[in-house]
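User: Here's a chain of 231 residues. Predict its fold as tokens.
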Amino acid sequence: MARENDATAADRPGAPTADGILEAAARELAPGTGDNPLVARIAAGEAPREVFAALALEQHQIIAADRRSFRHLAHRADGDPPVAAFFGALADGESLALDALQGLADACGLDADAVRDHEPRAGCQAYPSYVARLALGAEPADVVIAVTANFAAWGGYCATVAHALRTRYGFPDTACAFFDFFAEPAAELDGLARDAVRHGLATSRVTPRLAHRYGRLLQAYELMFWAALAE
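Assistant: Prediction complete.
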């Protein structure tokens, strides 16, 4: 299929747009209000405090894995600068998230030995395993759409947990920093996602059907993460 430049693609009547694709993915893949019982229990202050220690331990491994996957996606997209820039920013963000996670680990009494010796739960680690699979073989522009849709749901969960940690569980701000990081609006990252998808459309590298499939599975593995924490 011949490639088109941004201007030509945008001039086609009825042509899909980056904004339209991203908005549709976030809307269609959004979880239902009852799909995540654990976050609902946290919001009500009914989840045991041990859940937060388990979350911190699992996230140490998830963040490290996702950072490697995003760096690999950036490398695979090195001929498509807007796509590479998106994944480079995600990888940098994972480093910041890992730093922020330390406050939660400290509040839960987790030392370096506990983090190192933790045996991960399969249900919690299914998400990063699938991200790694996408990093190896999926079209990077399609992965942009999938992860952006999932981040919308993840950010909402993090906002709920951050509020509950303060108001229901009495955790200090340092323990909430990890959740605050993902809950905050990310206008710059949103812009990078639009640029990446726009580039993918212009170079005929976006397949919405596959991007939707990837996003649907990512969201399912996201819910599996929370369900495994509750076990």
